[in-house]
Amino acid sequence: MTTDFRLDRTLLATELEDVLRQVGAERYHIRHPFHRLMVEGKLTRGQMQAWALNRYCYQAAIPRKDAIILSRIEDRPLRLAWRERILDHDGDGSSPGGIERWMHLATGLGLDADIVASERLALPATRFSVGAYLTLVEKRSLLEAIASSLTEMFSPQVIGERVSAILQRYPYIEEGTLAYFKPRLTQAPRDVDVALAFVREHARTRETQQLVVDALMTKCQILWTMLDALHFSYVEPGFVPPGAFVPEASS
Asked: Which DSSP symbol is given to 109?
């Protein structure tokens, strides 16, 4: 039985953070069957390729998402802090960012870079999910947009589990292929500090705190939906939508 997460009173800042962490404990995609299969070493190369190709759509949208949020921030110090997120994923022209490192992962799994970058073989549900996230940060309040980023509170856990399991259970994947993940172990906690400080300052009523909790749940649902689509298409029942990526028979 999952928690309803409806607030019946105004919470202290520490209590609100506890609720947000409980949302992650129950609803973050580390609990999804597709992720569990991955860390148990039970996915084929083709299923891993499908994951990398589809997740690229999300990775490529992250700096666009953060640019939308940045454009809505009036406070200059917060803008300067938030700008780091865009550099983390787009790179700064002298060192690769997260998008480039994710492409290295995808090509390391045997995918063609141009096909991955085109996103044309991504699942329809992937594209809809990414679009839903961009719409969230554009149309909802700035508080909700920033709160939705707090899934980063939980990412170090999933990264730690995922990287060690992949290196142990998928011998064709080398440590360098997973270079995307190491910087995130320091970038994500830094970003969480900024977002949490904003939430603590601006979510001081039951109504605004509920908006924060709901925004985080929505983001968790978006990430969960992406894995739902992967599981349906490439695991069980294995129905790939027309026009989407089809692994080679031997993969």
From this structure: T
